[in-house]
Design a protein that fits this description.
25% helix, 5 strands, alpha+beta
Length: 122
């Protein structure tokens, strides 16, 4: 089972207020496949260990879509902000934050949208 980093949304995963994530990669992920949310996977210092965030989660759906869909379709964007764990953000704020935290990403970038459920592989 692969680990998926939630460095920017650790709190939201702990609180289970997030059930959608957007990734620049993860093209291989299949519906029904489990993955382990972690606080950080890369850039660990010597002696640091991977910190799991709860139990494994299961992929409900994956699809590719441009990040700008959130601003092109405002109602969709507001719901996606909520599902991403940022109900206080506007779609424009979310897109700006995502681009600022993902090198080379623009609103036109096509991402993998991953919906998941808590409760492990069972």
């Amino acid at each position: 089972m692969r680990n998926m980093s939630f460095a920017l949304t650790t709190r939201q995963v702990r609180e289970k207020s997030k059930d959608v994530t957007r990734r620049l990669g993860w093209l291989h992920l299949k519906v029904g496949e489990a993955f382990q949310p972690v606080a950080k996977c890369m850039g660990l210092r010597p002696g640091e260990k991977i910190e799991r965030i709860g139990d494994a989660v299961v992929t409900v759906s994956t699809r590719r879509e441009p990040l700008r869909r959130m601003t092109d379709e405002p109602e969709y964007g507001r719901e996606e902000c909520r599902r991403e764990g940022f109900p206080e953000m506007s779609p424009e704020e979310f897109v700006a934050m995502f681009c600022a935290t993902h090198k080379g990403c623009t609103p036109e970038t096509t991402l993998t949208r991953i919906e998941f459920r808590y409760g492990g592989a069972g």
